[in-house]
Specification:
Its EC number is 6.1.1.20. The protein is α+β, with helices and mostly antiparallel strands. The chain is built from five helices and eight strands, in the order E-E-H-H-H-E-H-E-E-H-E-E-E. The chain is 22% helix and 29% strand. It is globular.
């Protein structure tokens, strides 16, 4: 695995949400969940040509999706925020990979800070670290993903895993990952995962 560049603490809504097929009316985009910036309030530009493709998939569909059928707004996509996840770095990495003349498989990872407008308690902070991995190749299946996750968690000493179907706007299928916690005597969520949509 090669480390992805993750030095964008300030991110546009486009990379943080839109490029990941998260609708513009999604509750995660609310100021109660996301820290939006006042200065600079907007990204200076979005990738030419690409944002119009993202707009089309949101509003009309494509790649076997009917889309969300709403009027996608570039003004909403330009809003700057403190990134809510490092998956925005994955979206940028996949965009760069798609621009290559000849495809070559890649394995990326990142460990970096993310920010959410959370009420602080024993399980929530406004700033925390996210570990992310991304494998891009042809012919990959959900079984491959489960195998990588089992290997990753086993290296951390976590061997009892369960996978549960979940919903993420940007992956299909999606899975939450649970591990049995001996101290708590219950299954706890240790991760989220999925196969990126085309």
């Amino acid at each position: 695995f090669t480390e992805m560049p993750t030095d964008n603490f300030v991110e546009s809504s486009f990379w943080n949400f839109d490029a990941l097929f998260q609708p513009q009316q999604h509750p995660a985009r609310d100021q109660h969940d996301t820290f939006f910036l006042l200065d600079p309030a907007e990204a200076p530009q979005l990738p030419p040509g690409y944002w119009s493709k993202v707009k089309k998939v949101h509003s009309q569909g494509g790649y076997s999706s009917q889309g969300y059928r709403y009027e996608w707004k570039v003004e909403e996509a330009k809003k700057n925020l403190l990134r809510t996840h490092t998956t925005s770095a994955s979206a940028r990495a996949l965009f760069q990979l798609a621009r290559q003349e000849k495809f070559s498989p890649v394995k990326y990872f990142s460990i970096d800070r993310v920010f959410r407008n959370e009420s602080l308690d024993a399980t929530h902070l406004a700033e925390f670290h996210q570990v992310e991995g991304l494998v891009a190749d042809r012919g990959l299946t959900l079984g491959h993903l489960m195998g990588v996750l089992r290997q990753f968690f086993s290296k951390l000493g976590i061997s009892q895993l369960r996978f549960k179907p979940a919903y993420n706007p940007y992956t299909e299928p999606s899975m939450e990952v649970f591990s049995y916690h001996e101290g708590l005597k219950k299954w706890v969520e240790v991760g989220n995962s999925g196969v990126f949509r085309p």
